[in-house]
Structures are given as C-alpha cells and as structure tokens.
Specification:
single chain; alpha/beta; about 30% helix; binds glutamine; glutamine amidotransferase; Lipid II isoglutaminyl synthase (glutamine-hydrolyzing) subunit GatD; peptidoglycan synthesis; EC 3.5.1.2; Lipid_II_synth_GatD
Length: about 240
C-alpha cells in the first residue's frame, strides 16, 4: 500500500518508447488523481540509476535492438527486480513483456537473458503479427494494437493474461503473462487508455484495495466502439 504519493516509474522511455506506451503512465497517474490519490511519474532514462523504491514500474515496446539494450541495462542495474521482489507492481507491453521474461531471441539471432520476473520465453515467429487484437481476461475483454515478430511461451511459473479472440498475442491462443503483481501483454494502445479496467486492476494492487468506480461515459463509448470494430475485423 502506497503511503502518500504513488510513484509511477516509466522505465527507459528513451529506449522502450517507440509505440506510445508512455501514455500508460499518464493514464495511471490521472486515474489515481481523479480518485484523490496523489501520483507522480518518475522517468528512469538510460544511464540513470534504477530506483527500487517506486510503487509501479512500466515498460513499453521497442525494436529488438532497443529491447536487448534495455534488458542488459536493467540486469546490470537491478532496482526494478528488487522492487518486484517486495511486491511492487510491474506492467510490460510487447518488448516489455519479452524483457520481463526469462529470455528472448532478437533479430540478430542471439538469445538474450530477460529479467526473469515472468516465466516466459520468446522466439522469433514466422511472420509479424500486426493489427487490432481482442483478449478475454478476468478483468473483461481487452483491446489493443499489436506489432511484433516474437512468439512467447508461458511456463508454469506464470499464467497467461487471457485468451486471444482476435489477433495473435503470444502466438498459441493466449496473450501476455502474469506472476503475482507482474503483468504483461502484447497490447499497445496505450493499453491502459484503451482498457480502464486493466488500469484499475493495477491501481488496486498499488493501493491495496479495489478503487472506487470512475464513470467516464466518453471512454466507455470509445471502448465499445473499439471492441465492436476489432471483433468485426476478426470475423472478416
Ligand atoms: N521487438 C519485439 C518483436 O518484434 C517487440 C516489438 C514491440 O515492442 N512492438 O517481437
């Protein structure tokens, strides 16, 4: 439970910032503030110390080379792993998912060690998965945009986040991986802007209680429209 200001770590946005996933930090901060909880975003850039005292850590997507750089840096500066070990919330998207896993093979054909916070191994797939995606989860249906070559196998130490109804996700009918308070998905969007229930799941973990409802009709309308479009696209 965060005591006063919730500190949201945006991890290496200069390296894992290609796909707009930094928006996830803005969404978390705003949904906390709307509920009267003070929240700040702490950007941790390449070359900075990686603090182990933050409440949430967010990792976005990036190219293979960038994610190999990020994984190496975070392994050398293990503040995030220390924080995860004491129960801090970690959310990863795409390359973020792959980096949080045990290992991934990058475009250079080399296998790189991940942070090992998720039991997930990533290999190059046969073709790039690009497009709108729908994933059924315990937090309801999630929508997002995927753009990746990697296919991910989740081992017994993690559970998949959900089942893919449209798109590719991990490549075996599931998407993402979860272990404790470490959760990752292939969904860009940013995922938390498109899926408020997922944002609130993370917020609930941070504040240690289910957050009060936050009715936002415009967001709900947009969400219904996105789900309709993604499902219609999947049927074509
Ligand atoms: N480089 C990774 C892949 O192509 C992740 C891409 C991404 O983050 N969108 O699989």
């Amino acid at each position: 439970m965060a005591e006063s200001t919730v500190r949201i770590g945006l991890v290496l946005p200069d390296v894992l910032g290609t796909y707009g996933d930094s928006g996830n930090a803005v969404v978390l901060r705003q949904r906390l503030r709307w509920r009267g909880v003070a929240a700040d975003v702490v950007e941790v850039h390449y070359g900075d110390a990686v603090p182990d005292c933050l409440d949430v850590y967010l990792l976005g997507g990036g190219e293979d080379e960038a994610q190999a750089l990020a994984a190496g840096y975070l392994r050398e500066h293990p503040g995030l792993q220390r924080a995860a070990a004491r129960g801090a919330v970690v959310f990863g998207v795409c390359a973020g998912l792959q980096v949080l896993g045990t290992s991934f093979v990058a475009g250079d054909g080399r296998r790189h060690d991940g942070l090992g916070l998720l039991d997930a191994v990533t290999e190059p797939g046969r073709r790039r998965a690009v497009g709108e995606t729908v994933v059924e989860t315990g937090a309801g249906p999630l929508t997002g945009f995927e753009n990746h070559l990697g296919v991910t196998t989740v081992g017994p130490g993690s559970s998949p986040l959900g089942r893919v109804r449209a798109g590719t996700g991990n490549g075996d009918g599931t998407d993402g991986a979860v272990t404790g308070h470490v959760l990752a998905t292939y969904l860009h969007g940013p995922a938390l802007a498109r899926n408020p229930a997922l944002a609130d799941l993370l917020i609930g973990w941070v504040i240690g209680a289910a957050p009060p409802d936050l009715p936002l009709p415009e967001v709900e309308d947009l969400r219904r429209e996105r789900l309709r479009a993604a499902r219609a696209g999947a049927r074509r």
